[in-house]
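Okay, is this right?
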Amino acid sequence: MDILIQNLLNALQWGSFYALIALGYTLVYGVLLLINFAHGDIFMVGAYIAFFVATFFLGLFDFAPWMVLALTVPLTMLLTAGVGVTLERIAYRPLRRKGAHRLYVVITALMCGLILENGNLALLGASRKKFPELLDKVVYTWGNVSVTNLKLIVILAAITVFLILQFIVTRTRIGMAMRGISYDKFAIPLMGIPIDSVIVFTFVLGSGMAGLAGLLFAMSYPILEPYMGALIGWKAFIAAVVGGIGDIRGAFLGGFLLGFIEVGVVAMFPSTYRDLFAFSILLMILWIKPTGIFGVAKTTKI
C-alpha cells in the first residue's frame, strides 16, 4: 500500500506538469483551431526566464530565497506570456489576416519552436545550467511514504490553475468571447468584440501557464538545456488530444492520465518501456473514442 501511495504522488506530480502545458495547447486550439507546436519550447523558454530572473535577484539583492521565489513566479509568467504574444503577433497574426490555410500555420508553429530551441542554443550555448535553490526542502513522511513540499506545491498549482481557467472561460465576459470565437470567428467582430484582443489574451493565459510549468519543472529537476521542452511538449499535446483538445477538463484529465500511465509502467516494468506502453495505451483510448475523452465530433455546415 505504501508503494502504491508513493507512486500515486509521483504520478500526480508528473501529471501536473503535463496538465499545465496541455492547458495552454487546448486554450489556443479552442479559440483559433491552431495547434501551437511551439508551446513546448515556450515552456523551455519559461524555465530559462525563471533561471535568469532568480539569478538576477539572488546576485544583486540580499533577498531571502522565499522572497526571490515570490518575485520570480509572476515575473516569469509575465515575461513568458510576452514571448507567446510576440509569436502570435509576428508569426500567426499575418497568416490569419491573409486567410492562410491551417497547414501553413502549423508549419509556421513548428518553425517557431525550432527557432526558440536553436536560438537558445546559439545565444547561451549547449552547456546545461543549474537552477538555484529557491525553496527550503521539507520532507513529510508517513510510514514508508514521503512527499516534499515542492511536490505538493506543484500539484496544488496545477489544480488551482485549472480552477481559475475554468472560471475564466465559463463565468467571465472574456471567456464568453473566447468560446464565441471558437464557434464562429466571422460573426464575433460583427458584434463589436475585438477578436485580436481576445486572441492576445488567450496567448497570455496559455504562455503564462507554460512559464509557470517551466519554473516548477526547473525547481523540481534543476538542470536546464535547450531541448528540454521538445519531448515533454509533445507528450502534453498528446495528453490534450486524448482528453479532448479544445476542452479544458479534457486537457487537465489527459495530463494526469498520462502521468499515471507513465509512473505505473515504470513501477512494474523497466523504465525503457515507459514511452512504448504509455503511447500504446493512449492510442487504444483514441481507437475507442477518436475525439478524446471530453471531445465532441464537429460537423461542418455547407
